[in-house]
Amino acid sequence: MQIYKVGGAVRDRLLGRPVTDIDWVVVGASTEEMIAQGFKPVGADFPVFLHPRSGEEYALARTERKSGRGYGGFVFHASPDVTLEQDLIRRDLTINAMAEDAEGEVIDPYGGRADLEARVLRHVSPAFAEDPLRVLRVARFAARYAPLGFQVADDTLALMRTLAESGELEALTAERSWKEISRALMEARPDVFISTLRRCGALEKLLPEVDALLHVNGDHVLNVLQRCADEQTDLPIRWASLLRNVADLPGCNIDTIDTLNRRGKVPRDCQELSRLVGEFHGPAAAATALPPADLLDILQRFDVYRRPQRLEDFLQVEHINAQALGSNYPQTAYLRGATKAVRDVQPAALMAKGFKGAALGEALSAARLEALETFKREYTQ
DSSP E strands: which ranges in the chain? Predict the structure, then answer.
């Protein structure tokens, strides 16, 4: 039995980056031998075990064979006679196909170290084109390592294009695709993720609405995404920024964003903010000119009484978008002031006057509208 550190831990150590997760591969062992040494089996599709003390994952060396469509369409074979080189060749990129032994010696049968130095993301073998998920993974690695100068090799991009044209991307589950998309949007250069998908034709298959948006105003959208990363925003901000103008495309409306979110099984927080941004970025830009009744309706749609953070997230999206256009977003102060005005209207004061039920609701609306009218007069003086 021989145990090797593999994949990302080796890659990131050689790059001088922090190593967070460590993957181990075991060569020359059987399931029975692993269990006899105290490892706990956890893998359903292939033999993966938890170390009895560290809890880290150890996988038996394995080969794989394409057996169907999509990410899960593979048959795995694990046995003591599978070599380390056979295990490594099934991996996606050369920089992820290196191993390290107990003495720290790097085993690099496919040129991963040279590609690290050349700053190239290159596939290990033609079998790369058998797994559609690798299109998303390579684009995600491109987003992560773009600040270090990494680029996707031309022949690898060609294989990604072949996958995009094959229909295999459509076999990916929405959940698996979103996992990769969400991780990539949180990388250092999410704009590179989107542009890489577009270059290989995958964006049109996975996010056709975003692809259409990039045809109209691609440079601005990518600039906004990069600024989101520079400001270290969270995922809902980045997702809403990406979809901000989808509803403005010809033939689209706010339902287009809802359809995209449902199709992609996007989490609720990302869905809610992207819809609010898509629907209200236009009216909010004219906030100071809106009648108080219209402004009150918008604030209530944001639910500023119970969820004031949603407006703050919206304002952050608009601030970043304005910055990408070389301007600022002066509506922030007005919308915050308006929000404070309506939040200062306390239901308890009206209840003390005897209002309750439907009458209380009507009185609250009237008081909030009056507060907005007063705020607007004072603001414009």
Answer: 2-6, 23-27, 40-41, 48-50, 57-60, 62-66, 74-78, 99-100, 106-107, 120-121, 151-152
Location of structure tokens 């031309």: 154
Query: Do 302 and 311 contact (CB within 8 A), yes or no?
Result: yes
Half-sphere exposure of 286 (CA within 13 A, CB side): 8
65 is in an annotated binding site: no
The reply, when asked if residue 21 is annotated as ligand binding, is yes
> One-letter amino acid identity for 236?
P
The response to whether 23 counts as a known ligand-binding position is yes
Q: Is 140 annotated as a binding residue?
A: yes
Question: What residues have CB less than 8 Å from 200, skipping those under 6 apart?
Answer: 135, 139, 157, 160, 161, 163, 164
The string of pLDDT tens digits covering residues 268-298 is 999 999 999 999 999 999 999 999 999 999 9
Q: Compute the 3-state secondary structure of the chain and give helix, strand, coil in percent, each to the nearest 5.
A: 60, 10, 30
Q: Is 11 annotated as a binding residue?
A: yes
- What's the predicted TM-score (pTM) here? 0.91
What domains does the chain contain, in order, with CATH numbers?
Answer: 1-118 (3.30.460.10)
Query: Could you tell me which of 247, 296, 299, 250 has the C-alpha nearest to residue 275?
Result: 247
pLDDT tens digits, one per residue of 361-372 = 899 999 999 999
